[in-house]
Amino acid sequence: MTDETQRRRPKASVRAIGNRRLQPNTLMMGHGFDPALSEGSLKPPIFLTSTFVFENAAAGKRHFEGVTGKRPGGAEGLVYSRFNGPNQEIAEDRLGVWEDAEDALTFSSGMSAIATVLLAFVQPGDVIVHSAPLYAATETLIGRILGKFGVKWLDFPAGATPEEIDAVVEKAQALGRVALIYLESPANPTNVLVDVEAVANVRDTRFGTGEDRPPIVIDNTFLGPLWHKPLAHGADIVVYSLTKYAGGHSDLVAGGALGSKAHINTIRSMRNTIGTILDPNSAWMLLRSLETLELRMSRAGENAAKICAWLKDQPKVEKIVYLGFPENERQADIYRRHCTGAGSTFSLYLKGGEREAFAFLDALKIAKLAVSLGGTETLASCPAAMTHLSVPDDRKAALGITPNMVRISIGVEDADDLIADFEQALAEI
Q: Which of 254, 328, 360, 429 is least enclosed, having the fewest CB within 10 Å?
């Protein structure tokens, strides 16, 4: 058995026909897998094994040189399921296609991806600069968990100007080594965009363009990979909760990280050590979902545009924060430069407070009262009382995470049916 057979991956996948470069939605149907290497199976089998047999002792040594980091790039073949596996590697190949990334990794959850990335680059006493708000668990990880090891942080609002971003980075430099700049765009749950290009320009001006500059890491869960490609705008590493749009059916939990081979090698070494890799069954389910990613996201985006156009004129709605209706020229400019679509997740502010938000949520008949986003079904929740409950009240108020905010993720149902559902729910307030 050769190493290539052991990996159940082809030596090369067709990426172009003549001068035509194949599109990601086409490559999702077979890239990274050769049926001839798995008994002719059209789809990759699920490889439920904890360990893999080496061709010979020399091959085992060579693979472990990659796993342990003595040689960059990871193992040349399959070793042990804490390090790699056929299903995970095929999924990683296909994830990289969407962002034209050099390499990619999968993880057991979005938070395990974020934690592994942070642990790979941050040392005790370092400073993290980040946009705000972030997903509550990410803020907890940075502020409370890493804070126990002397890691400090400074933040700037998601919609900050280049001057505001620069001022925060300057302050961070005075506090210690800036390990990385962490972004989330649009911000969860306020839906405010970050100017990734401005952040990259500030970073390069202050730290230069050498390999020792702090990497820019961005959580692209809300828009990517269809509507936003941060690597093209200056980001170095993109992280995902693949549970959301990539998984897309609310039936798996997974995370991802994409970027250059050098950055991914650093992250892979940490993943190998702490064992945050995705399991083979979830990787197989993710492969299934990636085949319909463009179809699902496109339908959800079309639905959201129609529904938000209706919602913004309703008398019981205070405001709606949806990328298709930029709140100001600054957000409109970022949207034009960075995005190819407005997404299907938005923030709805109802007139009133928690009572009105809860009444609306409890009255929904089609949309489901649940956290998460990006699934085929429409979901709605109250961030202040649910996903961001652990965030201090004063910080929630400063960030606009108020009791009357409802976060809505539109699915692929009939748009007019959803409008009817929201109409009757608003009538119950």
A: 328
Query: Cis bond leading into 133, ω under 30°?
Result: yes
In a domain, 285, yes or no: no
Q: Of 274, 301, 329, which residue sits at a domain end?
A: 274
Decide: 240 and 219 in contact? Cβ < 8 Å: yes
Structure tokens at 7: 């990996």
User: Could you read off the pLDDT of 325-337 as tens digits, one per residue?
Assistant: 998 999 999 999 9
**75 within some domain:** no
pTM, 2 dp:
0.92
Token pair in block for residue 75: 């193992």
**Residues 245, 129 share a domain:** yes
**369 DSSP β-pair partners:** 380
Residue 259 belongs to what H/E stretch? strand 255-259
Plot region of 49 (φ>0 → left; ψ -120 to 50 → alpha; else → beta): beta
d(CA 420, CA 401) in angstroms, rounded, equals 27
Q: Do 204 and 311 belong together in one domain?
A: no
Angle at 205 between CA 199 and CA 208, to 5 degrees: 110
Q: Tens digit of pLDDT per residue, the chain (429 long)?
A: 344 444 455 555 788 899 999 999 999 999 999 998 888 999 999 999 999 999 999 999 999 998 988 888 788 899 999 999 999 999 999 999 999 999 999 999 999 999 999 999 999 999 999 999 999 899 999 999 999 999 999 999 999 999 999 999 999 999 999 999 999 999 988 899 999 999 999 999 999 999 899 999 999 999 989 999 999 999 999 999 999 999 999 999 999 999 999 999 999 999 999 999 999 999 999 999 999 999 999 999 999 999 999 999 999 999 999 999 998 999 999 999 999 999 999 999 999 999 999 999 999 999 999 999 999 999 999 999 998 888 888 988 888 899 999 999 999 999 999 999 999 999 999
Q: Would residue 15 count as lying in a domain?
A: no
Q: Which helix or strand (DSSP H or E) is residue 237 part of? A: strand 237-241
Question: Which 8-state DSSP code applies to residue 78?
Answer: -
Q: Starting from the edge strand earliest in sequence, which strands make up the sheet with 379-381, in order? A: 317-321, 345-350, 405-409, 379-381, 368-369
Domain that holds residue 422: 293-427
* Bridge partners of residue 152, in order along the sequence: 127
Statement to judge: residues 242 and 145 lie in one domain? yes
User: Domain boundary residue among 241, 274, 307?
Assistant: 274
CA separation for the pair 359, 368 (Å, rounded):
14
Alpha helix stretches (DSSP H) within 239-279? 261-274
Domain assignment present for residue 35? The answer is: no
